[in-house]
Amino acid sequence: MRTLMILMILAAAAAAQPPAGDAALGTRSYDDYEKAEVCAACHVDIYQQWTQSMMAQSYTHHWDEIEYFELAVPHAEKDAKVAGVKAGCNGCHAPISFLAGDVPPPRPEEGSRANEGVTCDLCHSITGFEGDTPHNFNWISEPGRVKQGPKPGLSSPHHDTVENDFLKSADFCGTCHNEMSPYGVWVKSTHLEWSEGPYAEQGVPCQDCHMPKAWGQNATMSEPGMIAQHLFHGAHDEGKLRGAIELRMHPVEREVEIDGSVQVKVQLFNGKCGHKVPSGSVEDRIMWLHVTATDSEGKQYHLPVDPKSFEGEETTIAADVLAYQDMGIARGEPDFPGVQRDGVPVGDRIFRMAYFDPQGRMTIQQWNTASLGPDYRIGPRETKVETFTWEPPADAAPGPVTFSAVLNYKRLLQPVADLLGVPADETETVVINFASTTVELYE
Ligand code: HEC
Ligand code: HEC
Ligand code: HEC
Ligand code: HEC
Ligand code: HEC
Question: In this structure, which residue's CA is closest to atom 17 in ligand 5?
Fold first, then answer.
């Protein structure tokens, strides 16, 4: 009898935990979540920050709309293996629509509540996550009068507050910043990269760098104090990207005979990021190192990187090849030949990890990713060294030669953007850093 009672109590407790991840689809209604504009009445500054952040645009901004409606949804309707992404994309990008079971939500131009994106009341209703590893929106959301906050003992006329350590943890962010594809491959692993690196060991969570604290007010009626900023700066912020990697450059020898060969080394150090660079949407991003030599008469030569001969290296050196053929599935073009793979000067070093579709072709469709290439990104506090060899041509001028290295970054591969008509602001080139050195060429 007693065992039965205990079992019944345990069953009731288990049933009381709201569902997480895929199981949460359609278990709530939009009305369970207050709009950000309601919070704005008192949390004036935080609201203004959030409206500028990518969180507020996670459903509306153009590239998301294009990828979801023109690639993911039609693909999901044709291929049972990836059918789940039709709803699943929104578990992270329009979570209250996902919870409300609105699949697919109306297009952004229709102004539905999907447009609220990752909104205040979603994050501040998250009480924990289900399972061992945060990923694929396995957060648990319990909306209502109680708002989960970082501080104890605060009172508000509009709601109750409770201190929740989970909100201050990297695991909280990991619920949306780790993603596993339907093929069981980690296609987004910012939190996992962090957890294996030095910042996790030293107790520096994501919030320290992406929600830094500054003097201000929680709400208009509250005492000023140190407040977590809600700008969530990342790859969309040039100021955050610039200098993210340091470049240093030196020659192997300072003086070289004109019919000899010059070797320069470039060091790339990740001293600022808590994870690898690039991280997150690795399938879209491209970071590449462009090196030139300029002789004393101003003639410029482009230097391809010296290969290191590791397996799969060909995906990390810009080449004139086609890729991303699997976009043809959604577009109804089974023989789609693909587009240029990189869109950057041939021979440049690319810091990336290639994603492959089930047929082994490179893909930007993370949901259609069945395997990964070598991980040639720059880890937290890691230094990579690249070597460039230049054999001066017969007409090179003697005297000082300047070697320049520029590390560039684009959020979206240019050839993919051109094909899909993605607005130009998604493909602006950001110079992350640069360096130079000189060598004396003598006859
Ligand atoms: C009528 C004003 C008002 C409205 C509307 C309001 N809040 Fe608050 N909120 C407050 C006040 C006041 C505090 C306590 C601040 C303090 O004492 O520092 C607070 C505290 C909080 C905290 C706890 C902060 C911490 O440091 O732990 C969270 C989280 C929060 N609000 C979220 C929200 C969200 C989300 C909304 C919209 C759904 C919202 N609030 C709407 C006034 C408001
Ligand atoms: C409910 C899901 C969710 C949670 C929880 C979440 N994020 Fe995000 N985050 C997103 C989505 C979706 C985007 C992408 C927005 C876009 O570009 O479409 C994003 C974007 C970002 C960006 C901007 C990246 C860029 O490319 O500019 C940063 C930085 C970021 N998140 C940090 C965090 C941190 C730190 C936390 C934890 C405190 C966190 N996120 C929690 C879903 C989430
Ligand atoms: C991506 C999830 C996310 C979104 C969206 C979000 N917050 Fe927060 N918020 C957090 C986290 C995480 C913290 C705690 C950060 C820390 O202390 O390290 C926080 C802290 C706060 C605090 C307490 C600040 C402090 O330092 O005392 C308030 C108040 C708050 N948020 C209100 C809001 C409001 C209002 C919105 C919408 C305009 C909003 N939040 C949107 C995740 C989010
Ligand atoms: C030590 C500081 C630091 C920590 C800790 C940190 N980040 Fe970052 N993060 C950065 C910097 C700097 C950038 C900009 C350079 C870049 O894009 O990689 C960045 C970029 C990003 C981006 C955009 C990546 C891209 O290439 O599109 C996302 C998303 C992000 N961070 C999320 C997180 C999450 C989630 C965590 C915790 C698991 C975290 N960050 C921890 C410093 C940090
Ligand atoms: C587990 C959560 C999660 C799921 C599921 C998810 N995303 Fe994302 N998505 C994110 C986060 C977080 C980012 C931001 C990463 C970064 O900035 O590097 C992002 C970034 C993007 C971007 C790039 C946005 C930019 O600003 O450059 C696009 C496009 C996108 N997602 C589309 C989709 C589509 C389509 C699906 C479904 C097939 C999907 N996402 C599923 C979390 C998710």
Answer: 280
Atom nearest to 40 CA in ligand 1: 5
Average the pLDDT over 183-193 and give the result.
98
Mean pLDDT of 236-243: 96
d(CA 200, CA 171): 11
- Residue nearest atom 3 of ligand 5, based on CA coordinates: 92
Give 98-127 pLDDT, tens digit per residue. 999 999 999 999 999 999 999 999 999 999
Residue 119 burial (10 A CB sphere; 0-12, 13-18, 19+): buried
Residue nearest to atom 32 of ligand 2 (CA): 232
Ligand nearest to the CA of 230: 3
* Closest CA to ligand 1's atom 40: 39
Q: Write the CB contacts of 216 (distance below 8 Å, at least 6 apart in sequence).
A: 45, 224, 225, 227
Ligand at minimal distance from the CA of 116 is: 3
Mean pLDDT of the 187-197 span: 98
Could you tell me if 347 and 305 are in contact, meaning their C-beta atoms sit under 8 angstroms apart?
A: yes
Q: Encode pLDDT of 13-58 as tens digits.
A: 555 689 999 999 999 999 999 999 999 999 999 999 999 999 999 9
Q: Which distant-in-sequence residues (6+ apart) come within 8 Å of 381 by Cβ?
A: 197, 198, 269, 270, 271
> Ligand 4 centroid vs 127 CA: distance in angstroms?
23
Cα atoms in the Cβ-side hemisphere of radius 13 Å centred on 137 = 24
Look over the chain and give the mean of its residue pLDDT values, rounded to a whole number.
Answer: 96
Ligand 3 neighbourhood includes 46 CB (under 6 angstroms): yes
Q: How far is the CA of 234 from the centre of ligand 4 (A)?
A: 6
Q: Whose CA is nearest to atom 16 of ligand 2?
A: 58
Q: Which atom of ligand 2 is nearest to the CA of 123?
A: 5
Query: How far, in Å, CA of 88 to CA of 248, rounded?
Result: 43
Q: Which two tokens stand for residue 193?
A: 């990269």
